Amino acid sequence: MAGKQYTEEYRIPYFETDIKGELTLASLVNVLILASEHQLNDLNVGEETMHSLNLGWVVTQYQMTINRMPKVDEKARIVTEAESYNRYFCYRNFWLYDEAGNECVFVQSIFVMMSYETRSMVPVVPEIMAPFESMAIKGSKRFPRIKKIDSEKASQKEYRVRYFDIDGNQHVNNVHYFEWMLDALDYDFLMDHRVTSVNIRYGHEIQYGQMTQSQVEQVMVDDIMTTRHKVAVGDLSAAEAEIAWTKR
Amino acid sequence: MAGKQYTEEYRIPYFETDIKGELTLASLVNVLILASEHQLNDLNVGEETMHSLNLGWVVTQYQMTINRMPKVDEKARIVTEAESYNRYFCYRNFWLYDEAGNECVFVQSIFVMMSYETRSMVPVVPEIMAPFESMAIKGSKRFPRIKKIDSEKASQKEYRVRYFDIDGNQHVNNVHYFEWMLDALDYDFLMDHRVTSVNIRYGHEIQYGQMTQSQVEQVMVDDIMTTRHKVAVGDLSAAEAEIAWTKR
C-alpha cells in the first residue's frame, strides 16, 4: 500500500516551455504541485483545512529523474500519491507520462508541516494524512546526499528578488531557484545539454528585495556531467542542488 | 460583422498569480495568446501554415481595460476574435469573463505579419485571414497615444536578460516586459494599487544577455494615478507603456 493515487491530464502551454520548446524545471514543479493541491482538495484536506489549523505545507527536498521533458502542446498525464510518512516527514511521489504512456518524469519529495504561529516545523497531523491512505512508517526514507559545492571553483551570478518572485505566502516561490541555478550556467552549455536528474534540498527562505548569489560548479561524476549549485543570501543557504546532464 | 468568435474556459492556477492571489499581467497575456493560438489551429491557419509560408505573427500594441483580475482557482471564460484588418495591421480583441459572466478584462491588440526571411513586416496575407471572417477595412483603428516618459523625472532599474526569458523564437518573450515595468515600481505602491488600464507599444526586440533599463515615472492624469514606462537597451526602445492605477 502506497497511498491513494490521483491523476489528471495536463496540456503543456507554450509559455511554460523554454527556447527548445520543452517544459521548464520551474513549470514542471508548478504543475506537479498543482496536481497535489487538487488531490488535497478532492480529499477535503485542502488549503481551507490547513488554514483552519494554522498550518502550511513546506517542501524540503525533491529528487527527480527526467527521461525527457514533454514538449509544447503535448498532452501529459500527471499522477501523484502521498506514499508514506513518519513523525515529521511526508513522502510524496509524482509521475508525468506522455500520451503513449511513457514515463517522462519521476519525482520523489519530502514535505513537512509548518505552524504559521511559530513559523517552525510541527509533527505531522494524522487526521490530515488519513484520507490519503499513506503508510505510517518508523524510519526515514533515504534521499541521495547532495555534495557541497566547492565555492573556490564555482562561478556566480547575482539575482535581486523581484516583486513577481513573491507568492501568496509572502516569500519567494522556490521554483524560481531553478531559474537562478540554471541561468548561472553558460548559454552554450544550456543549449547543448539536457537535465537527466535533479536533487535539491531547501534551507532558509528568501524575502523580497534581497540579493541572492547563485553559485555553480561543473564536475564529472562517474562519467556523468554534473553541476553543483548553491543559492544563498550572504551566509544563509536557501537551496543546494546536484543536477546531472546529458549531451543533446 | 466583427470576426468569428472563439471561446474557451480557463482555470487560474496559483503559479500565475501574484502576492495578492490575482492573475498577473504577464500571465493574462500568456493565456489570451494561448486562446488565440487555439483559434488559429481550429481554423487550420496555425503555426504549421505560418511556418510553411515562412511567416510569423508579431504583436505591436495592446490596449487593456481591467475591471478586476481573476483570482487563483477562479474559472474564467476567454473569448477572442480577429475583428478586422487593413493592408498591414490585424486587429484582435480578447475578453476575459468570470463565472458569473462579468467582464473582468477587455483587450484590443494590433498584430502584424513578419517574414522570417527578411525579418521585416509584410502585407497581410488574405488567405490567412479568410477563415476568421474578419472585416477588411481601409483606414487604421486609433489606439490612444502613449505619452513619452520624462527621463529626467524617471527612476530606473536594470534587468539582465536571462536564459528563461528567451522563447522558441530566440528572443525575449515580450510578457517579461510587464515584469520589468512593474518591478521598477516600489513594493508599497504595488501592494496598495491595482492596474485599471494598460497601453503598451512594442519596438525593438531584445536578445539574451543584454542589459535592459526599465524606466518609470509617476504622474497624475485627470486625477488618475498613472505610470509611464520605457524598457530600453541603451538607445533602442523595446517598449513604451502607460498604466492607470486605482487605490486598493
Q: How are the secondary structure elements laid out?
A:
2 copies of one chain form a homodimer.
Chain A: E1 5-11, H1 25-42, H2 47-52, E2 55-66, E3 75-85, E4 90-97, E5 103-115, E6 120-122, H3 126-129, E7 135-136, E8 155-160, H4 176-183, H5 187-192, E9 193-202, E10 211-221, E11 224-233, E12 236-247
Parallel strand pairs in A: 3-7
Antiparallel strand pairs in A: 1-3, 2-5, 2-9, 3-4, 4-5, 5-6, 8-10, 9-12, 10-11, 11-12
Descriptive notes:
The structure is a homodimer of 248-residue chains. The model of chain A has no long low-confidence stretch (mean pLDDT 96). Chain A has five helices and twelve strands. In chain A, strands 1, 2, 3, 4, 5, 6, 7, 8, 9, 10, 11 and 12 form a twelve-stranded mixed β-sheet that branches. Chain A is globular and about 50 Å long. The first copy, chain A, has 248 residues and is an alpha+beta fold. The first copy, chain A, has helices at residues 25-42, 47-52, 126-129, 176-183, 187-192; strands spanning 5-11, 55-66, 75-85, 90-97, 103-115, 120-122, 135-136, 155-160, 193-202, 211-221, 224-233, 236-247. Chain A folds into two domains: 5-136, Thiol Ester Dehydrase, Chain A (Roll), CATH 3.10.129.10; 155-247, Thiol Ester Dehydrase, Chain A (Roll). The longest helix of chain A is centred in the N-terminal third of the chain and has 18 residues, at 25-42. At the A-B interface, helix 1 and helix 4 of A face helix 1 and helix 4 of B. Chains A, B: GO terms for molecular function: acyl carrier activity; fatty acyl-[ACP] hydrolase activity. Chains A, B: It comes from Latilactobacillus sakei subsp. sakei (strain 23K) (Lactobacillus sakei subsp. sakei). Chains A, B: Residues 151-247 form the Acyl-ACP thioesterase-like C-terminal domain.
